[in-house]
Specification:
The structure is a homodimer. The longest helix of chain A is centred in the middle third of the chain and has 27 residues. Chain A has a four-stranded antiparallel sheet with strand order 1-8-3-6. Chain A has a four-stranded antiparallel sheet with strand order 2-7-4-5. In chain A, strands 9-11-10 form a three-stranded antiparallel sheet. In chain A, β4 and β5 form a beta hairpin. In chain A, α4 crosses α6, α4 packs across α7 and α5 crosses α6. Chain A is α+β, with helices and mostly antiparallel strands. The first copy, chain A, is built from seven helices and eleven strands. The termini of chain A are far apart. At the A-B interface, β5 and α3 of A face β5 and α3 of B. Chain B binds a DNA duplex through α6.
Chain lengths: 236, 236
DNA sequence: CGCTATCTTGACTTTATTCAAGGCTTGTGG
DNA sequence: CCACAAGCCTTGAATAAAGTCAAGATAGCG
């Protein structure tokens, strides 16, 4: 099933925003649409880096396996995010689907050629990698210094922002925002460098404080975004 | 004092390795040699990103100021490292000299033009940024999960490797490696997300275990590099 | 020589982990 | 439709880790 990818899911937010239609069509011809179910890997740490991809829908995790054999999540990918290491060596990370996902996958060689031919695309990729680095550094601060509550609050805040959720169904003044977490408690624990129990306790505490609501399953409602952001910043 | 920078300190390890001499000279003409003393800032978080630079000697830190007003170090720069955000918006980080440093500084616009004219340079910069991202992620794992001992051991291990120190003065079989830390205990604490006291205790513990020696001041001698690496990996 | 910074060490407190048990969901088969 | 099993989530009590507060010890520096 090698259906071509009609627009690579990149038209709006991604690498190709600056390309004209002809170029876009050219790039689209190189990409292959692919789906993964929850739990499937796109890239494994020791693979030679043969592919690049754009995530179109769903969420994925970037993880390493620690010396102790634990799964350590070092990044999350949301729609529009780029996967791969053009012009570079091995990646040393696994990239695994957290939900069912849709991707536009390129052979690395094809993608590199496209980058070489389309200068602006390369610049965009550079910008984006720099932005990703900034995000990693922000996260570094969170993980290095923040309390358990701040980590959990920061994570919820980040997810909400990255998913670009907005609850416009009713024109009410309520600022509540609802969404489903792409991760289990265990995965959140891996991500935040905490234990499952601690994550659970902090979620409970945020609910007790009226900041969020947990209707059940993986659903989360943010009742007070300002308080959540404040909890994320609280370094004490 | 706007002396031109003769080779930008980049000939060996850096962006310009792939350029021929003519191109190198062209780039060098754009750069200005600059020195900062310990504690001086090159970039402030809220500055518009007007410059790019290559670090030639010394060490610098990349830091943010937390909501609580603390200084949170999110990265270190060693000779050969690149500073700046070509083609991108603001950086949101301070870049401050940890020791006296020498830099080759470019006006951002000049540097962007050079990147545009020298394709290979741009690819190298991309690669390097991707590598930096990987390093940030490795660090993320360390900060997220590691114990205090592992953080300190990992940091020493990283410094040793990044400084490329080798103790060849005498042909002895001893694998001991000696160097001076570029950071105070307080800065190490910021960097590792620990307190000064904890850093101090862990250093003492590593010394008690015969893994390192602390002759005084900021000097460190690594007595048993293997044990140090093991301590850094110990997630328990 | 004395002053100030920085670093080390100790006693106590706070925070998160560990271990252990119980509850809620979900899916399956009777 | 209900019972039951499996997985995930929550909660509690005990333990271990790092932080805080408070003295001293060293090292630079004038």
């Amino acid at each position: 099933m090698t259906r071509r990818c009609s627009d690579c899911g990149v038209r709006d937010r991604s690498l190709c925003g600056s390309l004209n239609d002809t170029e876009l069509v050219h790039l689209a011809r190189l990409g292959v649409q692919r789906r993964l179910v929850r739990g499937e890997s796109l890239v494994r740490a020791d693979d030679p880096p043969l592919i690049c991809a754009n995530l179109q829908s769903g969420a994925m995790k970037v993880s390493s396996v620690t010396a102790g054999g634990d799964d350590a999540i070092v990044g999350l990918l949301y729609p529009g995010d780029f996967i791969g290491r053009p012009f570079a060596g091995s990646d040393h990370h696994d990239v695994v689907a957290l939900t069912d996902v849709e991707l536009c996958v390129f052979q690395r060689a094809d993608f590199e050629r496209a980058l070489t031919e389309h200068r602006e695309m390369e610049q965009k990729l550079l910008q984006r990698t720099l932005a990703e680095l900034d995000r990693a550094r922000r996260w570094l601060m969170l993980l290095g210094r923040a309390t358990a509550t701040a980590r959990v609050a920061g994570f919820l805040d980040d997810v909400q922002r990255r998913l670009g959720v907005n609850d416009c169904q009713r024109g009410m003044a309520t600022e509540s925002v609802a969404f489903d977490l792409p991760l289990s408690r265990g995965e959140m624990a891996d991500l935040l460098g905490l234990t499952i129990e601690t994550v659970s306790r902090q979620m409970t505490r945020l609910r007790a404080g009226g900041i969020i609501d947990l209707p059940g399953g993986r659903a989360v409602v943010i009742r007070d975004a300002a308080a959540l952001a404040e909890a994320a910043d609280a370094f004490a």
